[in-house]
Automatic annotation (TrEMBL):
Protein name per the record: Elongation factor 4
Positions that bind GTP: D16, H17, G18, K19, S20, T21, N133, K134, I135, D136
Broadest EC class assigned to this enzyme: hydrolase
GO MF entry, a single one: translation elongation factor activity
Location in or out of the cell: Cell membrane
Major place of residence: membrane
Gene: lepA
Pfam families xref list: EFG_C, GTP_EFTU, GTP_EFTU_D2, LepA_C
Length: 598
């Protein structure tokens, strides 16, 4: 197709501002879906995405649109996730677009990720059309939202399009704006092939599927392609676009985006950010790629039933085929047996992987407290990276510890600033900036240790701001901090899977809160159970779970059989997620108690 009739664009927004709903409306308007096929939020394909209402993977859809000028345009829409854990996917999607729709909820206004995503789009040189969504809501304030877009994002908002993705009001104006305001792609279809991989995954029926943007040249069915980073050559077997149903094509030319399937067996051979070229007529240079994605949050995953360990490994291997952003390696714990140390982009990512393992692979899992990766310089000069408390070096051998630090931008209303300042100070934050972005909205910029964020920061932020605060962050560097390892002893025995890394000045308080939470979570046993927190050989806190006097059933009076059954069932249910350590049954929640005491 003539590149002048192509528009590639992404939709960017803060979470829940309506990207997916708007995408659905655009598909409907361009007739990409008949109403029978129209199912709410078709782009959120995975069940889990639909249930949680979040978009996990970026998707791309081709729509054909007959504009008011009588010409037909090919519009390639690339949907992006909104959650901060997945911002690297936003960046990838933007690299394959010339323009973006910046969707802002008219009842909420500009939020932290509106800003972060808008800046990303600006830095990629994209043309941006502001869209003010949810104007059907009584609390919508179009003028105020425009003002915030101008003041805080710095984009002219007089042409912002007010729409309701829910009712469809004004949505057709967006299509006209895409055609007239966004630039067409450049690139010569006759030049040597240069295509950028912006996603790839393993499909059990079709093998490796690659999403690519052809930057110059033409990608053809049957072509021998070369992956530029590793020199490997593959034959293109089939290719096409999603409309959103897959439609097979025989070529994709400069400016177009689409998928292809080649003789690729391993997703690792088609790394996101890599350039694909024609093996017979290669281009001179690869395209600028993406930075490698790094895991930020680490936790141990174990099966409750140790016989299921091999199943967990298989499941992790399968999931990894589609998600190169999480890592895993075998680890073993005295308390929990054989398991895996896994690395994630953030806490939401951890939850999603855990839920998929349980749901799709039917595994009962124990997850240990999430933590971060420390860089430790030893007294002999060696430097080690440690993300597992059980590998923490002996304190006498530690010279210096560096912990990862983030820059966090928090947008909130004036009245919540006090509570938030207290929270970030409690979390060892250091203020960088305090700025009014409108009369009542404040943007706080803080440096914070990532270790403090992975615990309960989101939940606490939500509660002190009653939900009126949004957060965006990126890795900023490291601080040298006096971190210590805190062990938890149950009945006098250290349970390695319960150990955590804390700041020395907070250790005493944390230890006290932790054992007291554990006391609530560990059910009473037939005997007394001591729970202690210790740093080295020094006990910093202690609580006791008193012994059960009689067994539970003995408490119900004889005749009430249904109550009895209920109790037994409840016990059984509880057992499922217990791990017996020594003589004590410890429930899953106890392993995550540290998340609840921040
Ligand atoms: P993520 O994919 O999780 O980033 O969210 P999203 O930005 O795609 O938001 P989504 O489309 O899932 O919409 C979030 C919520 O807002 C849903 O409950 C939608 O029904 C609702 N919503 C979206 N657009 C409108 C609108 O124009 N008006 C009203 N009243 N509600 C809307």
């Amino acid at each position: 197709m003539d590149p002048n009739h192509i528009r590639n664009f992404a939709i960017i927004a803060h979470i829940d501002h309506g990207k997916s709903t708007l995408s659905d409306r655009l598909l409907e308007l361009t007739g990409s879906l008949t109403s029978r096929e129209m199912q709410a939020q078709v782009l959120d394909a995975m069940d889990l995405e639909r249930e949680r209402g979040i978009t996990i993977k970026a998707h791309t859809v081709r729509m054909m649109y007959k504009a008011e000028d009588g010409q037909t345009y090919q519009l390639n829409l690339i949907d992006t996730p909104g959650h901060v854990d997945f911002s690297y996917e936003v960046s990838r999607s933007l690299a394959s677009c010339e323009g973006a729709l910046l969707v802002v909820d008219a009842s909420q206004g500009v939020e932290a990720q509106t800003l972060a995503n808008a800046y990303l789009a600006i830095s990629h040189g994209l043309e941006i059309i502001p869209i003010i969504n949810k104007i059907d809501l009584p609390s919508a304030d179009i003028e105020r939202t425009k003002e915030m877009i101008e003041k805080s994002v710095g984009l002219p908002a007089s042409d912002a399009i007010p729409v309701s993705a829910k009712t469809g009001q004004n949505v057709e104006q967006i299509l006209e704006a895409v055609v007239h305001l966004l630039p067409p792609p450049k690139g010569d279809p006759e030049a040597p092939l240069q295509a950028l991989i912006f996603d790839s995954w393993f499909d059990p029926y079709r093998g490796v599927i690659v999403l690519a943007r052809v930057v110059s040249g033409t990608l053809r069915k049957g072509m021998k392609i070369k992956v530029m980073s590793n020199g490997k050559v593959f034959d293109i077997e089939s290719m096409g676009v999603m409309t959103p149903k897959p439609v097979e094509l025989t070529e994709l030319s400069a400016g177009e985006v689409g998928f292809f399937v080649a003789t690729i067996k391993n997703v690792a051979d088609t790394k996101v950010g890599d350039t694909i070229t024609d093996a017979e007529r290669p281009c001179a240079e690869p395209l600028p790629g993406f930075e490698d994605i790094k895991s930020m949050v680490f936790a141990g995953l174990y099966t409750v039933d140790s016989h299921e360990h091999a199943l967990l490994r298989d499941a992790l291997e399968k999931l990894r085929l589609n998600d190169s952003s999480f890592t895993f390696e075998p680890e073993s714990s005295v308390a929990l047996g054989f398991g895996f140390r896994c690395g994630f982009l953030g806490l939401l990512h951890l939850e999603i992987i855990q839920e998929r393992l349980e749901r799709e692979y039917n595994l009962d899992l124990i997850t240990t407290a999430p933590g971060v990766r420390y860089k430790i310089t030893l007294t002999d000069g060696k430097v080690v990276e440690v993300d597992n408390p059980s590998r923490w070096p002996d304190p006498s051998e530690i010279e210096q510890i560096e912990e990862p630090v983030i820059t966090a931008k928090i947008l909130t209303n004036e009245e919540y600033v006090g509570g938030i300042l207290k929270l970030v100070e409690d979390k060892r934050g250091r203020q960088q900036n305090f700025e009014y972005v409108s009369e009542t909205r404040v943007m706080l910029t803080y440096e914070l240790p990532l270790n403090e964020i992975v615990l309960d920061f989101y939940d606490r932020l939500k509660s002190v701001s009653r939900g009126y605060a949004s957060l965006d962050y990126h890795l900023a560097g490291t601080w040298v901090s006096p971190m210590v390892k805190m062990d938890i002893l149950v009945s006098g025995e250290p349970v390695d899977a319960l150990s955590i890394i804390v700041h020395r000045d907070f250790a005493y308080e944390r230890g006290k809160a932790l054992v007291s939470k554990m006391r609530e979570l560990i059910p009473r046993q037939m005997f007394e159970v001591a729970i202690q927190a210790a740093i080295g050989s020094k006990i910093v806190a202690r609580e006791t779970v008193t012994a059960m006097r009689k067994n539970v059933i003995a408490k119900c009076y004889g005749g009430d059989i249904s109550r009895k059954r209920k109790l037994l069932e409840k016990q059984k249910e509880g057992k499922k997620r217990m791990k017996r350590i020594g003589k004590v049954d410890i429930p899953q929640e106890a392993f995550l108690a540290v998340l609840k005491v921040g």
